[in-house]
Task: inverse folding
């Protein structure tokens, strides 16, 4: 198994004017890992994602995708990343298939390859019957499934998901979680799942706790429970984010 | 990435633009009706008010409707260029801009492809207008329909690049409306679209120079001459230069390192 991390950040910082959004953030994810980036709203999760996808320019620290510096080889890095943004990004006036073909074109895929991959991914997310429906007609959960299918079309090795389950019902949330876990397990994809919903942290998950732009803890969920002596992940999270505030 | 990947990306972006256009039939009709209203009402009303002397490329006295036809074609290109850019502001607010921006192709190429996709739609609308304008006896020589194509493309690129530049600087959709008013109307009226510039010169020398400096005037003149199989070299050079400047600035505006998107997030 490769020892090169799928995703690593070292000393990453970012400012919006006077406001510091990220400060000295460091952690890494191995291929096939499912890692939860846990933090409250405003913790800096979306800023980190925007830096990792080159929507914002990076000024402090380093981001590496499979050992490539994103500043030196941004396009090679982007080719390896699949992204599900926090904000819905489907074109609602286009059909599910048209949205997916558009994404394939943006990655330079041929029509034949695109058609084959779309058929596979759309089946995996259980939306074969809706493939010709306009995105506008889909439910929130179905739209998210399309976005995950879309993020996988160019066969990325790293999946970045920014609060993918916000606003979804329990069954849709569970479907997405199970689906991404399966992708990590079966396809060896590394996933960074940003959320503020603590119950999305499974017992086996690796967790990065981000609070006010700083990493408060990194480790397996069980390790964090042990370290904080907390009875639940919620209690562990509260302890970790309060530690420095109290100090 | 090889050239074929770039081509596929261009085709994909053009297809999306085309599908969006087909979905918005109102946009097509309003783009077509607007110049037709000018042609049917404005041109008829001003038919005897504005005397038009024999000026190149025309070889004889022409009706006013024939004079303003190139200006109305340029108007179609202008409105479509702006609307295409409006969709960029919309895309950014709706989030679909992010999908474009995380493509592993260079950003300058993605923006140029977006621009070209808009121009294809503009040119098709311009030809639709020319087809209907036959009813008003606006019939250039047959070869004019072919020679006008590069002029339409270049003018469309210039207007689209301007729109792209504006969209990179505009924060919200609401602001776009006011910019449209401050850009579209002055550009259209301070040009040779509605009246020959010698008329303007007689009225105000300052306004004449403003019209001469207006890139929209050059778009109108390039189209006017091209409809008669002639090249207006000064206008062509001006349009190429202005398009290059607008596009460079727009790419700069959308560059994350230069931070327009970032600055917006900070505000």
Result:
């Amino acid at each position: 198994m490769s020892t090169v991390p799928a995703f690593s950040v070292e000393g990453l910082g970012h400012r919006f004017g006077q406001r510091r959004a990220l400060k000295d953030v460091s952690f890494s994810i191995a291929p096939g890992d499912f890692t939860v980036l846990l933090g409250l709203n405003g913790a800096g999760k979306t800023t980190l994602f925007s830096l990792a996808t080159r929507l914002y320019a990076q000024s402090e620290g380093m981001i590496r995708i499979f050992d490539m510096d994103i500043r030196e080889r941004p396009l090679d890095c982007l080719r390896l990343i699949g992204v599900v943004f926090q904000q819905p990004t489907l074109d609602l006036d286009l059909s599910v298939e048209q949205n997916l073909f558009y994404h394939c074109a943006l990655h330079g895929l041929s029509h034949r390859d695109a058609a084959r991959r779309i058929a596979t991914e759309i089946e995996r997310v259980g939306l074969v019957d809706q493939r010709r429906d306009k995105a506008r007609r889909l439910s929130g959960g179905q739209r998210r499934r399309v976005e995950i299918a879309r993020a996988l079309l160019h066969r990325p090795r790293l999946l970045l998901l920014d609060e993918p389950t916000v606003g979804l019902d329990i069954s849709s949330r569970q479907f997405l979680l199970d689906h991404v876990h399966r992708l990590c397990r079966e396809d060896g994809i590394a996933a960074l799942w940003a959320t503020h919903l603590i119950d999305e942290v499974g017992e086996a998950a690796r967790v990065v706790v981000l609070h006010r732009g700083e990493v408060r803890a990194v480790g397996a969920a069980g390790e964090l429970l042990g370290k904080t002596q907390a009875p639940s992940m919620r209690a562990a999270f509260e302890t970790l984010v309060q530690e420095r505030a109290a100090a | 990435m090889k050239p074929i990947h770039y081509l596929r990306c261009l085709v994909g972006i053009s297809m999306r633009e085309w599908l969006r256009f087909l979905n918005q039939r109102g946009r097509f009709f309003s783009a077509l009706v607007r110049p037709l209203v000018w042609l049917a009402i404005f041109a008829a009303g001003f038919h005897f008010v504005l005397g038009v002397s024999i000026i190149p490329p025309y070889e004889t006295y022409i009706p006013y409707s024939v004079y303003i036809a190139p200006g109305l074609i340029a108007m179609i290109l202008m409105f479509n260029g702006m609307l295409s850019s409006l969709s960029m502001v919309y895309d950014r607010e709706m989030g679909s801009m992010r999908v474009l921006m995380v493509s592993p192709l260079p950003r300058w190429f993605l923006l140029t492809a977006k621009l070209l996709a808009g121009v294809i739609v503009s040119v098709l609308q311009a030809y639709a207008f020319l087809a209907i304008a036959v009813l008003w006896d606006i019939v250039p020589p047959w070869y004019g329909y072919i020679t006008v194509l590069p002029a339409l493309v270049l003018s469309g690129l210039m207007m689209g690049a301007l729109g792209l530049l504006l969209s990179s600087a505009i924060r919200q959709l609401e602001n776009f409306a006011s910019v449209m008013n401050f850009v579209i109307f002055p550009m259209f009226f301070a040009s040779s679209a509605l009246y020959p510039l010698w008329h303007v010169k007689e009225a105000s020398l300052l306004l004449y120079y403003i019209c001469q400096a207006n890139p929209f005037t050059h778009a109108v003149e390039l189209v006017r001459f091209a409809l008669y199989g002639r090249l207006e070299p000064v206008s062509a050079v001006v349009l190429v230069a202005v398009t290059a400047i607008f596009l460079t600035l727009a790419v700069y505006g959308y560059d994350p390192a230069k931070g327009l998107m970032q600055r917006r997030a900070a505000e």
